[in-house]
Amino acid sequence: MDKNQKPIFIVASGRSGSTLIANILNRHKKICIISDLIEPVGDNRFFEKNINVERKYYFNLIQRQTSLSRIFYWRKKETKELLYMPKNDTDVSLLNCYALPFLFNNKVKKFYELSKKIFLKDKRKKRKSEHLKDYFNILKNLSKKKIYVERTGGALHHIEKILNFYPNSKIILNIRNPLETVISYRKHPFFRMYYLMLKKKRFTKWNFNKFLDYSEYSKMLNNWYLKFFKHYKRINKKNFCYYHYENLLENPKENLEKIILFILNVKKLDNYSKKFILRESRKIKPNRPKFKSLSLNSRKKVSKILSKTIFQINKHFPK
Question: Residue 269 belongs to what domain range?
Answer without folding.
Answer: 8-316
